[in-house]
Amino acid sequence: ERGVVWEESIVMAPKNSRFVFLSATVPNAKEFADWVAKVHRQPCHIVYTDYRPTPLQHYIFPSGGDGLYLVVDEKGKFREDSFQKALNALVPASEGDRKRESGKWQKGLVVGRAGEESDIFKMVKMIIQRQYDPVILFSFSKRECEFLAMQMAKMDLNEDDEKVNIETIFWSAMDMLSDDDKKLPQVSNMLPLLKRGIGVHHSGLLPILKEVIEILFQEGLIKCLFATETFSIGLNMPAKTVVFTNVRKFDGDKFRWISSGEYIQMSGRAGRRGIDERGICILMVDEKLEPPTAKMMLKGSADCLNSAFHLSYNMLLNQMRCEDGDPENLLRNSFYQFQADRAIPDLEKQAKDLEEERDSIVIEEEDSLENYYTLLQQYKSLKKDVRNILFSPRHCLPFLQPGRLVCIQCTRSDENSPTFSIEDQVTWGVIINFERVKGLSEDDANRKPEDANYTVDVLTRCAVRKDEVAKKTIKIVPLKEPGEPIVVSVPISQIDSLSSVRLVISKDLLPLEARENTLKKVSEVLSRFAKEGMPLLDPEEDMKVQSSSYRKAVRRIEALENLFEKHEVAKSPLIGQKLKVLHMKKELTAKIKSIKRTMRSSTALAFKDELKARKRVLRRLGYVTSDDVVELKGKVACEISSADELTLTELMFNGVLKDIKVEEMVSLLSCFVWQEKLQDVQKPRDELELLFAQLQDTARRIAKVQLECKVQIDVENFVSSFRPDIMEAVYAWAKGSKFYEIMEITQVFEGSLIRAIRRLEEVLQQLIQAAKSIGETELEAKFEDAVSKIKRDIVFAASLYL
């Protein structure tokens, strides 16, 4: 959001303006300077240096190990031998050592076994002993920050006089709070921690508490600070040492390695200019890290400055309202358009190279092979549909009993490359157990969404390999191949079929002999049914699958199998290789099409189609006339930039905001500013739920109009972006409840709630201006009353920096 505002400000600034841009990490500064020079027709000089006054040393601390390993020295040299030694010292957490927390795996790194010191404790102890403090320990979750700080309970890093200073500074700051607010758990629990020289800093803290911690850290009274990523952005608070408690982060979709840009930003806090000879960065690693991944992270470049420009109705209406406003001119001069124009020569070269590569691939009987390839894709898609129906928990759970023989897909050596055989490579095993899985772990990046509910423990033959850092890889192989009998956890999507045969299995499968004997029994059953085939559960008779789509898919599979038998290329001995080459050719064609599509959209004015579509929406909803003159509704939307302008304007004009009490209105408006996703949230009271339903109906209507006008939007995603999670808390706050009382009825962090209420006040101020602009004095007074009800006490406590 902020990036867009900056971009608009630079484009629309008066031509006689002079700019100074400052940044520590912009690798494409020249590109940015070229854009500014082009837009304002004035030179933009770049002063650039790679010199760092305080050089950094990068170490690895392997989980379960005792020492640090220098992997990148102050000259920037990557030490391969030291890196391998660090990984060899790594003690991977076994399944039993892992702790589950909030539905996701908690790595063995942070928690020590009973009676043992955790890795974090050992790390901080070593840093203090070597006088590497002050230290910032970065974690990627607010709860983990607090959890790790609590592990330091036995550690005291401060002298008595420092404790006195901390207490004095702390209570001087807290004096502006009421007596009730001083008793908040976050306030009372933090002081004992701070007195021991340990602090926590994340966005869920009370703003005043966050500022006190920043002041104490600057004064050198906090020796060890647990912080989230936000501490590395916009705050000039360096330390001698920076520790990464994890090298993977959850980005809202999946767990991934931290990027080089993120690493540079956070590691940049290490080393205080004029105080330290060098800064120290320590990566705590609890799983195998490939050398290329480590090099990319430790020695990669900072993230490029890329345009995040996008159209908004507020911007569009404000441009249309101005006499000399021109949305197209704004788009033409945007950094987004500038970058798109610059990329075209490279894209043309890429497309040409790919076309040459594609045209060099010559395949015999290509037309016939292409027909076979298309049939194969259809066949695989239908098989997947059938498997999804059969192995939905509703149908298969009653049959996942211990002892049942199950046919599962083998682990392929290359999971990402497609197979070109009609039959998947499968093997047999015996079911030991199945369990419900609450959430996907970071280790299960390849697990499909339908597997999020259940996994099946199957005893089967596996090939076990150990790499150079003693990390095991286990692959399911056919029973006749060499391997070990191992119980593996298999996602439901990997099951191919269920047998009607069940074996009596030993209760104790820990001894190798017991597992071998069980697999021998499986092999005996298979050889007994070698001629007629293993008896399987009948989907309709046994599993009671009544779906018409299942029957339809089975009929189409049978028809395709007949076509395969008669197909002219089916008996070709090299069909697998030929299909692989054809697939490669098709992938190249798809890449070429994608590049050409990007080129077409780049050569045209960026967002031109979206601009037309959004103008259609504004005309259709009555915000502007057919001549693009801004109407009454449009004037209101012009004033709203901190919430969804169309939905809010519609609620204002259809009388919803006028007909309800002030407290209910404030509660409803909280849905516009709350963005965090909470689980298992209690529903708000009936009258508030009714208001929320009205908001959802309005949002759905607006989203459908946008869809009809060709604006790309996911209707349900848009509707679900309005969240009722803090409606009750905000209602109670507007009613005059104390802050500690509203914290008892919600499960959010104090700082997150305060930030939402402050943003809500910002929206109300914009609504006051909107009501004033159209002469709605009654609504204006109502919005002002709402501001007076929420703008009080700890939520709007003045900053310590002012």
Overall shape: it is globular
Amino-to-carboxy terminus distance: 26 Å
> Do you know the CATH architecture of the largest domain?
3-Layer(aba) Sandwich
Give the percentage of residues in beta strands. 5-15%
Computed Rg: 31 Å
> In the CATH scheme, what's the topology name of the largest domain?
Rossmann fold
Largest sheet report: 7 strands, mixed
Structural class: alpha/beta
Identify the CATH homologous superfamily of the largest domain: P-loop containing nucleotide triphosphate hydrolases
Mean pLDDT: 86
What is the percent of helical residues? Answer: 40-55%
- SS field, number of helical segments: 30
Number of domains: 4
Domain Helicase C-terminal: 119-321
InterPro entries: Beta-barrel_MTR4, Helicase_C-like, MTR4-like_stalk, P-loop_NTPase, RNA-DNA_Helicase, SKI2-like, Ski2/MTR4_C
Protein name: Putative superkiller viralicidic activity 2-like 2 isoform X1
Coiled coil: 337-367
